[in-house]
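Record type: monomer structure entry
Structure origin: computed from sequence
Chain ID: A
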Amino acid sequence: MDKVRRIGVLTSGGDAPGMNAAVRAVVRTAIANNIECVGIRRGWQGLINCDFVKLTRESVGHLLSRGGTILYTARSEEFMTEAGRQKAVTTCKMLGLDGVVAIGGDGTFRGALELSRLGVPVVGIPATIDNDVGCTNYTIGFDSACNTAIECIDKLRDTMQSHERCSIVEVMGRNAGFLALYVGTAVGATAVLVPEHQLDFEKDVVERIRASRLSGYTHFMIVLAEGAGKATELATKIRDVVGLKPTITVIGHIQRGGAPSGRDRETATRMGYYAVQSFVEGRGDCIIATQEGGIVEIPIEEALTRKKHLQMDRYKIMEIMQFGSHED
C-alpha cells in the first residue's frame, strides 16, 4: 500500500456495545499517525449514498461508555449487487479514501471482501453480541450482552422463587448458542437449549425439571437461544407433560443496549488501534482477531472460511454444577 492519508470507518449489521469505543480508537490512532478519518453513516448503504461525517479527536470524546453506534448501522441489499458495490467504490474515490475500517460480523466482512476485490483496502473489526465470528475467540459486545441478560434473569428469579414458577427466558442467538450457554451457566439454569445441540425434550427438559424438584427446588429456569426452538411451543410441551405453566420472557434487543463492559471497552480499543496500524504498516485486507489473549491479523478470505464451534465441555460443566452428573 502507498502512504495512507485518509480512511473511512463504518459500523454494519446488528449493533453491539463497544462499537463506539472501536470507532474512537480508530479515529484517535489515525490522527496520531497524521491520517484523516471520515465516518461512514449507516454501514455499506451509507458508503453507496455518500453519507459521511468528518471525525476529529474531539468528536469521538466521551464515547467509551456509550452504547449503540454514533455512526448508525443498517443492512444493505443494494451493496449485495455489483452496481451497488461500484457506487461504493465511486464514493471511496470521491472522498479520497485509502482504506475502510468495517466494524461488524460475518455479513459485514463478506461485504468487506467484495470491496477489497474492487481495489479498496479494508480492515474488519469483529463486533457482534453472538460471539459467532469464526476467526476470533472474542467479538466486541459479547460480554456486555451476557451481563445484561444475567442481570435481567437474576431479577426474574426473585419473583420466580416467590411464586414457585417455571420460566423460559429467550436470549439472542439465531445460529449460535454461545450467549445462551454462558448466561445459563452463570445463572444456574435448570436447562439450556442451544442450536448446536439436538433437543431431546424428555432428557434435556423434563428429566432436569424433575431432578430439580426432587432435590427440593420449586422454581425452574430454562434458558433458550432463539435459534433452538420456539418458546411458546416449549411452554406448551412443559405444561402438557409436567403440569407446570411456564412464563415466557424474551429479553430481545435489551441485550444490545446499555454501556459496554470494561472488557468490551478495552478489547474494542485494542482492536481499533491495530486496525489502523495494519494500514500504516502497509497491509490491510484483513480481520483483526483475538487469539490466545493476543491480537492477530487474518486475511479476510481466510477468515471467512473459519468456523467456531460451541465448546460442549462447557455444557457438561453446566450440567454437573446443577445435577452432579453428566450423560453423553
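Annotation 1: The mean pLDDT is 94.
Annotation 2: The radius of gyration is 22 Å.
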